[in-house]
Write a structure and sequence with these properties.
By secondary structure, the chain is α/β, with parallel strands linked by helices. Helices cover 43% and strands 13% of the residues. It has two domains: 7-131 and 296-326 and 347-367, Rossmann fold (3-Layer(aba) Sandwich); 137-286, Isopropylmalate Dehydrogenase, CATH 3.40.718. It has helices at residues 25-38, 48-57, 81-84, 89-98, 111-122, 157-175, 196-206, 235-260, 264-272, 274-284, 310-325, 328-339, 351-356, and strands at 13-16, 42-46, 66-68, 104-107, 132-137, 144-147, 181-185, 213-218, 230-232, 292-295, 300-303. The chain has an eleven-stranded mixed sheet, sandwiched between helices. The relative contact order is 0.19.
């Protein structure tokens, strides 16, 4: 995250204190660190007596405003919880954004529940068919954005084109890349590789009519190569790819640690390289990046990992603040508008786009195929 010193302090970031495996203790601790160490303006949503007691334990009584909400989305609940619990912490947080009292939401709650509740309460931006979750991959020389990583499993070619627009806007704000290069994830670099949806998306992106800097297809082996700034795929493939990478990184770091401890010579070598090893660990640690960002709604939503500790929550607060300061919602709106063409632009109109994609206006939105 590059950060944005705009000179204008955005509205507070609202924190779902009851989301995550270690709520509310680690969530409040991370929020307190963001407030104390980085000056992030915050609102905490949750059972007021409980949250105030947590703040008191940190010597922060009365320092950070608390908004009362008794209900919380359990970690094992799915998308329908957004309808079963209309006064959940996530729903109340979305209301604060919708009414202008907050600029962004941070939650470590169940991905499916947070996505569904945010979609229901904040609504899709004009022209957005489906929102997408963008995550940051630890590539060099700079990070790479991957989306969708779990919001929508089944997509149309037009949705992939739109994900390219969402990712372009995100890379511009979060990474400071003026003209992000976009790659389409599939089974081969050649234009004809992939299923029907991917091949059609390639045709649309390669036409040059979308306002996207399209670099062509990329394969799974290229995910950490830094060949492009934005990687586009459907939510099923993206979620599998992301969790495969996370598992590979954990295994690699565990093997590296074991190798370092294997002998006195190895320990001595590690001591000489401790600065580089610390930087490597920091760069590969998912807690450094703050979580995934749900793009395409009328509000900024950062979804932290369910197992987030205080440090990860602090990173998520910083990410949410910087995205709000960079006016990510407006940048997404402009980029989506630039990609609309007569071929499919008439269908991309907020809720109608959702209905065209299979949801009935009188029924709850289809549960997102979100990974945990």
């Amino acid at each position: 995250m590059t950060g944005h010193d705009t000179g204008v302090q955005p509205r507070p970031v609202v924190i779902d204190t009851m989301g995550g495996d270690h709520a509310p203790e680690e969530i409040v601790a991370g929020a307190v660190a963001a407030f104390r160490e980085h000056g992030v303006r915050l609102l905490l949503v949750g059972p007021a007596p409980l949250i105030r007691a947590e703040l008191d334990a940190h010597g922060m009584t009365g320092e950070i405003p608390v908004v009362h909400a008794e209900e919380a989305l359990a970690m094992d609940e799915g998308a329908l919880a957004s309808w079963r619990k209309p006064r959940s912490t996530v729903a109340v947080a979305c209301h604060l954004i919708k009414t202008g009292r907050a600029s962004a939401l941070v939650s470590a709650g169940t991905t499916a529940g947070v996505v569904a509740t945010s979609r229901l309460r904040l609504k899709a931006q004009p022209g957005v068919i489906r929102p997408a979750i963008a995550v940051t991959l630890p590539t060099r020389p700079r990070p790479t954005v991957l989306l969708d990583s779990g919001a929508t499993a089944d997509v149309k070619a037009e949705s992939l084109v739109q994900f390219a627009a969402l990712g372009t806007a995100y890379a511009q704000v979060a990474l400071g890349v003026e003209r992000p290069r976009v790659g389409l994830l599939t089974i081969g670099a050649e234009p004809g590789k992939g299923n029907k949806v991917v091949r059609r998306a390639h045709e649309l992106l390669a036409s040059g009519q979308q306002g996207i800097e399209f670099a062509g297809n990329i394969e799974g082996t290229d995910l950490l190569a830094g060949k492009v700034d934005v990687v586009v795929t459907d939510g099923f493939t993206g979620n599998v790819a992301l969790k495969t990478l996370e598992g590979a990184v954990r295994t690699t770091m565990a093997e590296l640690s074991e190798t370092i401890r294997s002998s006195l010579l190895a320990k001595a070598g590690a001591l000489l390289q401790r600065r580089r090893l610390r930087e490597l660990r920091r760069r590969l640690d998912s807690e450094t990046y703050g979580g995934g960002v749900l793009l395409g709604l009328n509000g900024t939503v950062v979804i932290a990992h369910g197992a987030s500790n205080a440090r990860a929550v602090t990173s998520a607060c910083l990410l949410a603040r910087d995205l709000a300061a960079g006016r990510i919602v407006e940048r997404v709106r402009d980029q989506v508008a630039a990609t609309r063409t007569s071929r499919f632009g008439l269908r991309l109109t907020g809720d109608r786009g959702d209905r065209d994609a299979g949801s009935s206006p009188s029924q709850p939105p289809a549960p997102p195929d979100a990974g945990g």
